[in-house]
Amino acid sequence: MAGHGMDEHPHGADRLCEVGDRVYSRAVRRGRVPRADVEEVPCLVELALLHPDPDDMAWLLPTSPQEVMTRLLRGVYDEVSASQRRMGSAVAAFEWYAGLGPLPQNSAGEGSAIRVLDGLSRIQAAMDAATEACTTEVLTVQPGGIRPEHELTEGLHRAMALRARGVRMRDLYTHVARHGQGLLTYLELMGDAVEARTLEEVIDRLILFDRTVAFIPANADRTLALEIRQPALVQYLVTVFERLWRLAIPLTAPLPDTGIEGISYRERSIAALLAEGHQDAVIAERLGISVRTCRAHIARLSETLGAASRTQLGVRIAQVGLVGPAQAADGPAQAADGLPSPAMSLPDRGSRTGR
């Protein structure tokens, strides 16, 4: 294997070379490959896609695609988190420098285009100020599962004040939020001042006031946030929201029928993510449910489809067509104006739950 290092295969596990793809595919199909087959592609061993068979060192066993996917996703998450930390540090540092003296005449106002808010109290203060100044519209995306009632209660007084000023509000949630009694009660109290829609998955938390200022989390635990007033960035976020809104289903409308007896809409969503090779924790995070709830749904899927193993479940999911999009009972949601957003707070102090 001398002379066949990563210099000849400058790639990662997410983009194998042609020979590597062929050998790894063969290993997954057959369960193992002779060590001699890997002499041309040492990258498979160096990337830990293949490892020695402890019972026969002349053979190599494949690392499961699911495990490789989890490893890649973890690496991407770490890179994104590191980038967010660097961005927060850079903005905070130059914000401090900007405070040392007056801005030049030609750059007045540019220093406030993106502001880093460090700590829950500073985030809340900025949110309160934006709420007070808002005169026309609030758009929010609320990820996760069922919103804790204390968060909804905390945001109710702000929402009532906005409604009194004639401000329009719209909220996007995951489908799981439909099961939260607190949200239903909140919407009932707000009446026609609030419109809410749901999707299988949404982006991370986003709050937009009057299409001029946006708030987004800047780290995983949401103790850092960005206040964005740069017009191009704000308009981009508005466009993202509007396109998600058109795809979402009104909270008052039923979820699409899977067309398969005994399979719920959520189980269809889980089946589609399983077919993509995602682990239970990733699926739970994306759908806003707990890992325990996710596994309970997977167990019911296996029972309904008569699958005795995860591998067999994947085959049965493909056979019955659960990987395709479900059709909404009332057709796709049409674009509409409306008004929602209960707890308009970036920090998410409640735990994710689901049914």
Describe the model:
By secondary structure, the chain is α+β, with helices and mostly antiparallel strands. The protein has four domains: 15-63, no CATH class; 66-109; 113-250, Endonuclease Chain A (Endonuclease, Chain A); 265-320, Orthogonal Bundle (Arc Repressor Mutant, subunit A), CATH 1.10.10. Helices cover 43% and strands 15% of the residues. The chain contains eleven helices and eleven strands. It has helices spanning 18-30, 43-46, 65-98, 120-133, 149-164, 181-190, 231-247, 265-275, 280-287, 291-305, 310-320; strands at 33-34, 50-53, 56-62, 114-118, 137-142, 168-174, 194-199, 206-209, 213-217, 224-228, 249-250. An eight-stranded mixed β-sheet has the order 4-10-9-8-5-6-7-11, with helices on both faces. The chain has a three-stranded antiparallel β-sheet with strand order 1-3-2. β6, α6 (181-190) and β7 form a beta-alpha-beta unit. The longest helix is centred in the N-terminal third of the chain and has 34 residues, at 65-98. It is flat.
